[in-house]
Amino acid sequence: MQRAVSVVARLGFRLQAFPPALCHPLSCAQEVLRRTPLYDFHLAHGGKMVAFAGWSLPVQYRDSHTDSHLHTRQHCSLFDVSHMLQTKILGSDRVKLMESLVVGDIAELRPNQGTLSLFTNEAGGILDDLIVTNTSEGHLYVVSNAGCWEKDLALMQDKVRELQNQGRDVGLEVLDNALLALQDLGAGSGGSSPGNSSSEKPRGEAGRAGSQGQPAPGGRPLPVWE
């Protein structure tokens, strides 16, 4: 957690809360919720914690929702998305595995380049959206939605076993890291216009905060810092 907090402080970004429509307040009758590594940071900065997909996440800080929204659109903000499913796809056949599950052209990704894609079923129906990054460390880094955690993980695990039974070199590892998402889309150029959407820019660069030799993303769509 200290690493994640130090990253926020060093970069000077404002940490924002999740939209209220996605969350509901905590109650003592609910099951015990998971906490991200930034949980104490949220409380220390006045975060109002709510339940979302089995996690305790901030829905609001001291600023109003309007002020937070305008700050993000006019400048940029960090969001704690550590609750999302993070996986490594390993092995020399990792691209074959991922391209059998998603619609993206994973083989064409440059090192540390990521793309927004979709998990699909055998009939081509959409199961979930995700981001796949071709890391320079010899694995694919996959981030998908917390609300589909069990479904997405089972889908990938089943495909791993299927390919392993065929003698393919593939593996999967679930990560438990702090994860921060940087918004607005024009963060490197002073903010974006309201009509500027990520649908026009489906790919982005990713890097680990504090990793030597890996530049932090700047002004890129879907920049994710781990």
Automatic annotation (TrEMBL):
<dbReference type="InterPro" id="IPR006222">
    <property type="entry name" value="GCVT_N"/>
</dbReference>
<keyword id="KW-0032">Aminotransferase</keyword>
<protein>
    <recommendedName>
        <fullName>Aminomethyltransferase, mitochondrial</fullName>
        <ecNumber>2.1.2.10</ecNumber>
    </recommendedName>
</protein>
<feature type="region of interest" description="Disordered">
    <location>
        <begin position="186"/>
        <end position="226"/>
    </location>
</feature>
<dbReference type="InterPro" id="IPR027266">
    <property type="entry name" value="TrmE/GcvT-like"/>
</dbReference>
<comment type="subunit">
    <text>The glycine cleavage system is composed of four proteins: P, T, L and H.</text>
</comment>
<dbReference type="Pfam" id="PF01571">
    <property type="entry name" value="GCV_T"/>
</dbReference>
<dbReference type="InterPro" id="IPR028896">
    <property type="entry name" value="GcvT/YgfZ/DmdA"/>
</dbReference>
<feature type="domain" description="GCVT N-terminal">
    <location>
        <begin position="38"/>
        <end position="179"/>
    </location>
</feature>
<dbReference type="GO" id="GO:0008483">
    <property type="term" value="F:transaminase activity"/>
</dbReference>
<comment type="similarity">
    <text>Belongs to the GcvT family.</text>
</comment>
<dbReference type="GO" id="GO:0004047">
    <property type="term" value="F:aminomethyltransferase activity"/>
</dbReference>
<keyword id="KW-0808">Transferase</keyword>
